[in-house]
Structure formats: structure tokens, C-alpha cells
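[Q] Does anyone have a clean C-alpha cell version of this?
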Amino acid sequence: MVETRTASPMAEADITAMKETHRTQQTPLQQLHAELDQEKEASATAASESMDMILRLQNEKAAVKMEASHYKRMAEEKIGHAEKTLEVFEELMYQKEMETTALEVHVLAYKQKLLALGVDININELEFPHDLLLNRSEQNGEDDQSSSKRRLLSLPLFAL
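[A] Here you go.
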């Protein structure tokens, strides 16, 4: 048993040295664990912020897409309306051109009638013979004043 007593103080010294070594190594290890925890927390925070930014950007992208779709739809509607309006105006122009052509034909017909009646057609001024109606009413046997007046009132206005 003597050996156990001598071994025991040596073992106690070893144990004490080991404990001291363990304590000296434990402090840097605890610091490393603390740094690791800080890094984990920073990494988790960065990942959370990144996810928040991704979600925000996705929401903004969806909003921009929706707005672009809305503007596209509005532009298409405006183009459709403009095309319909253009078609209406083109149809109106065609109708007016047809009316103009018909009126030009009427003007030519009236010019020919006036020439047949003996009216000298001048570009600046139309000259209508004053006695033409009186002569015609006299030829028809109408001597009363009312028949020539009636005829005179139904004629278009010309500069005499």
C-alpha cells in the first residue's frame, strides 16, 4: 500500500496539471464556440435578410409585370379604338367623296342645262338673261304676272 500513496501524490499532480491544461485549453475553445455562434447568428441573419430581399424583389417584379400587362391592355384597347375610329372616318371620307362626285355631276348637268337655255357661263360670274323667263312664259301663252313670278321665285339665286 505504500506504493499507492506514492502513486497517489504523483497522480494528483498529474490530475492537477491535466486540469490546468484543460482549463487553459477550455478558454480558447469557449472563445471559438462563441465566435462560431456569432458566425452562425450572422449567417442566419444574412440568410433571413436575403430571403426577405428575394421576396420583396419577387413582389416588385410581380407588381411591375401586372402594371406592364395593364398598360399593354390599355394600349391595345386604345389602338383598337383608334383603328375603329379610323375606319369610321375612312367610311365618312368615302361617303363625302361620293357625295362630292355626285354634286360635281349635278353641277355639270346644270351647266349643260344652262347652256341649253342660252346662259353664257363665265367662271367668275354667271349671267342669266333677264327676258328669258318672260319670253318662255309668253311662248306658253301665259300673260299674267303671277306665273312668271312663280317661276322666278323657284329659280336659284343668281347675280343679275
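[Q] Thanks! Anything notable?
[A] The mean pLDDT is 80.
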